């Protein structure tokens, strides 16, 4: 099952493995509002309404429980909280979920029976699950489904988030989260704090959970945040409601940007550090399957550009700290792998080939191919976390009757900081479009490639219409690759209350034929 993931465009390499699996006899179920290219390979496509994932998944679990199709032995021996889950799930019979998610009740039943008929079944998701105000609950719900089916702790099963960039996993592993040190060691844990105080030669590390990026940016306006360091992010294009973001960035008392090119965000910076690109660096990446792999320098960085770690070290030196490690290898072998228990067995000498997957706890450890083996979870048993469906923060109305959802297109990458400098890719996709349904185009008299105005309560853009059967009636789909027609002029700053991930996948807009 692939849910909330346009793999063929956002993860084209990963999608080839899915297509190959289908060619070899695997059955594919795609759950997505759009009929994108991966649906061509699917045995079943469920075009659910935007933001209705929990209602649909709960209804699938209703069928599994009601018809006794779930993995009872796994649930009884490897999980906790089933009674609470069942109580919530019984509130979501397919007949109740159908009008919420737009999927016929019998199709929901068919989906549940198909999933229960195969062992193991793999579930993959991407930002179509997480970029909602209920994103955390969405993730918990897909985990509920896979635990109910007993698809955890087995190869080719599990809950598989396809990371949005090549080293998102690695950044999290290194502690680029507000609540953990490297290796997911909690900042609230006194023993963890003492360990890092000793290693880093500092005193009194805070035990308070830090703040998230949206909170930091709001703090620039209130002056609670006086210095802001932006490292490899083009916030002025990627964050929702660009006008709000630009106000926040322009309010910064001191803003530092570290990047490989000038961007829309560096316009607001007081200092810009030129960084080496990935191919000009030596180091490691960790991917979606937790595999730590080597990255080797292909060419020297131009001009004054330097590796990111070197820049950080020079700043620390000016602040009175003499950090000993003087290469990516020394950083990994002498610090990272020493301080993070799950990475202790991963050394540069061991990842010359195909890398290693953490947890890898000692130097003879072969790495961990898949997690939760034999149904043994980190906390002992897997914990069911029932979730209630909630609508998006902004839904269509008479003034703004369409729902806008956003994502990526195949030929460009994010805000085109890199791909926008490639003539061949600009030839393939030189401007943004607004994807609308055949039915809406016919009703409004909009011709393919005709310019239309797409407007939300935050802003408006003029963009060419792409009339396509991929998009259902009532929906507009756009990307954020091009500055003047960026979807984030329209999106709104509504966030999941736990993760503070923005609801890029749903806001209300109107369309005007020009």
Characterize the structure shown.
By secondary structure, this protein is α/β, with parallel strands linked by helices. Helices cover 31% and strands 16% of the residues. The protein has 18 helices and 21 strands. It has helices at 7-10, 12-23, 53-66, 72-78, 82-89, 94-101, 105-116, 127-130, 135-148, 168-173, 190-200, 213-222, 235-238, 242-250, 308-318, 328-339, 423-428, 438-444, and strands at 2-3, 29-31, 44-46, 79-80, 123-125, 159-161, 180-181, 185-186, 227-231, 254-259, 271-274, 283-286, 291-295, 356-357, 382-383, 402-407, 433-436, 451-455, 460-467, 475-479, 507-513. It has a six-stranded mixed sheet with strand order 17-19-18-21-16-20. A five-stranded parallel sheet has the order 3-2-1-5-6. Strands 9-10-11 form a three-stranded parallel sheet, with helices on one face. A hairpin with a 4-residue loop joins strand 18 and strand 19 (460-467). Helix 6 crosses helix 7. The longest helix has 14 residues, at 53-66.
- Give the strand content: 15-25%
Main pleated-sheet profile = 6 strands, mixed
Overall mean confidence score, pLDDT: 94
The total count of strands amounts to 21
How many angstroms does the end-to-end distance come to?
A: 40 Å
Discrete helix count: 18
In which range does the helix fraction lie?
25-40%
Unreliable stretches? none
Strand order of the largest sheet: 17-19-18-21-16-20
Please compute the radius of gyration using only Cα atoms.
24 Å
**Class computed from helices, strands and strand pairing:** alpha/beta
- CA-based shape: globular
């Amino acid at each position: 099952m692939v849910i909330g993931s346009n793999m063929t465009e956002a993860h084209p390499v990963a999608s080839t493995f899915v297509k190959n699996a289908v060619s070899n006899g695997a059955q594919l179920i795609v759950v997505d509002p759009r009929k994108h290219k991966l649906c061509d390979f699917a045995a079943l496509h469920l075009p659910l309404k935007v933001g209705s994932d929990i209602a649909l998944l709960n209804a699938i679990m209703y069928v599994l429980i009601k018809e006794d199709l779930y993995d009872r032995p796994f649930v009884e021996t490897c999980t906790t909280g089933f009674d609470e889950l069942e109580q919530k799930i019984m509130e979501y019979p397919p007949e109740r979920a159908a009008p919420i998610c737009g999927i016929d009740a019998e199709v929901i039943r068919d989906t549940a029976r198909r999933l229960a008929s195969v062992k193991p079944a793999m579930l993959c998701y991407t930002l179509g699950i997480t970029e909602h105000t209920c994103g955390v609950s969405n993730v918990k719900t897909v985990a509920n489904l896979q635990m109910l089916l007993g698809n955890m702790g087995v190869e080719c099963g599990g809950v598989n988030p396809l990371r949005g960039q090549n080293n998102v996993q690695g950044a999290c592993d290194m502690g680029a989260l507000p609540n953990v040190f490297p290796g997911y060691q909690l900042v609230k844990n006194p023993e963890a704090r003492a360990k890092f105080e000793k290693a880093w030669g500092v005193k009194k590390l805070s035990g308070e959970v830090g703040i998230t990026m949206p909170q930091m940016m709001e703090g620039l306006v209130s002056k609670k945040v006086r210095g802001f360091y932006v490292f490899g992010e083009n916030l002025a294009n990627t964050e929702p409601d660009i006008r709000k973001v630009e106000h926040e960035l322009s309010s910064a008392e001191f803003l530092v940007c570290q990047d490989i090119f000038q961007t829309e965000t560096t316009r607001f910076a007081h200092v810009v550090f030129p960084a080496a690109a990935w191919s000009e660096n030596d180091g490691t990446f960790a991917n979606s399957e937790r595999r730590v792999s080597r990255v080797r320098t292909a060419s020297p960085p131009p001009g004054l550009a330097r590796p990111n770690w070197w820049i950080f070290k020079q700043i620390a030196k000016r602040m009175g700290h003499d950090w000993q490690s003087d290469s990516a290898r020394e950083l990994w072998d002498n610090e990272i792998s020493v301080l993070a228990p799950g990475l202790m067995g991963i050394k540069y000498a061991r990842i010359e080939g195909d890398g290693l997957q953490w947890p890898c706890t000692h130097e003879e450890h072969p790495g961990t191919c898949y997690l939760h083996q034999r149904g043994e979870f980190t906390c002992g048993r897997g914990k069911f976390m029932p979730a209630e469906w909630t609508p998006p923060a902004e839904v269509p109305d008479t003034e703004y009757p369409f729902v806008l959802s956003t994502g990526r297109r195949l030929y460009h990458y994010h805000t085109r900081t890199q791909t926008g400098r490639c003539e061949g890719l600009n030839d393939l996709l030189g401007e943004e479009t607004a994807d609308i349904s055949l039915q809406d185009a016919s009703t409004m008299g909009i011709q393919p490639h005709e310019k239309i105005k797409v407007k939300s309560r935050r802003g408006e853009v003029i963009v060419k219409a792409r009339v396509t059967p991929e998009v259902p009636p009532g929906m507009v789909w756009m990307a954020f690759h091009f500055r003047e027609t960026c979807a984030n002029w329209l999106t709104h700053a509504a966030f999941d209350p736990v993760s503070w991930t923005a609801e890029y996948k749903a806001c209300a807009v109107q369309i005007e034929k020009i």
